[in-house]
Amino acid sequence: MLPGLGFFTLALISIQQRRSFPVRIEQVVRSEAEKAASQAKRAAKQAPKPAAPRPRGRPKGSKNQVAAEVVLAPELLRIQAMLEAQLKLIAGCIPLAYLVLDGHFGNHAALQMVRQCGLHLISKLRCDSALYLPDDGPYQGHGPHRKYGAKLDYRHLPDKCLKQTTTEDQIETRIYQTQALHKEFRQPLNVVVIVKTNLHTRACAHVSLFSSDLALAYDKLIDYYRLRFQIEFNFRDAKQYWGLEDFMNVSETAVTNAANLSLFMVNLSQRLLGDLRSTDPQCSGPEPRELSPEMC
User: Fold this and answer.
1) 70, 179, 273, 287: which sits with the fewest CB atoms below 10 Å from its CB?
2) Are 146 and 223 in contact (CB under 8 A)?
3) pTM score, two decimals?
């Protein structure tokens, strides 16, 4: 494995300008606790499954247990510290409501980390995530009320959840939105499923986006998630124009300073280009790009 550098960046994204502006960057240096947690997770995946599956139903003699508080992994604690520090700096200046993270953070622990900071999470679920509609059937007369209703079938989603249908180049795109439950999350999720079908071959694929904000409209949820990709173009410009790939520093502080300087120049150049283009629309420079639906 080749040695490399890892960075985690927080950026403000302008919905009107369709641009990302990095505001905080830190080098990712994995602690011993993170390495141990990663190794334990890898070992759990590779562990052989028991020969005889556990019988169905609740084990005899088991008792109800109070759900424990979520214990954040070292990676989430590092991100939370960055997020809280940045929110403290811009408190009262810019009202923020959402934190958009990629599919790596589409889990309950990440959602709780974001909610503890007073924001809503927008992210992506695994394509095979088991989602359930809330049960709306009549009470059976005994025992607790049922929580989980019908399991969502991504190939046959309810028509009442359909929000938009478009067709282009023999590709039909259907967008569904519903409130759904996931057994690893403690709260309902605002889920938007984008289903694409090739009308010629009938091949089908889907993407599941979600937010903890149950009132967020489907079009805004999709738009906000796509805008996350603008951060990738910040790194592209930093490498191409501002020396992010060329610095020779080796110490942790010097590397962090060099990376911050490169991304600061990305912000400065965008600001200067904006002023120049107000008087000279033909002024050249890197242009923002939109993330296509296929790249979600």
Assistant:
1) 287
2) no
3) 0.83
73 Cβ contact partners less than 8 Å away, ≥ 6 residues apart = 34, 37, 109
Measure Cα distances from 141 to 133, 146, 189, 296 in Å: 21, 11, 28, 44
* CA nearest neighbour of 286 among 228, 244, 239, 243: 239
Residue 110: strand, helix, or coil: helix
Q: Say how far apart CA 242 and CA 262 lie, in whole Å.
A: 5
User: CA 200 → CA 165, 205, 286, distances in Å?
Assistant: 17, 14, 37
Does residue 70 surpass a pLDDT of 60? yes
> Which helix (H) or strand (E) is 184 found in, with range?
none
Q: Can you list the domains of the chain with their CATH numbers?
A: 7-31+71-124+227-295 (3.30.420), 132-137+145-212 (no CATH)
β-strand 98-100 against 120-124: which pairing, if any?
parallel
Cβ-count burial of 192 within 10 angstroms (0-12 exposed, 13-18 middle, 19+ buried)? buried
pLDDT > 70? residue 26:
yes
* Distance from C-alpha of 75 to C-alpha of 207, rounded to nearest angstrom: 25
CB 209 within 8 A of CB 186: no
* Model pLDDT for residues 131-157, shown as the tens digit of each residue: 999 888 777 777 777 788 889 999 889
Helix or strand holding residue 16 (H, E):
none
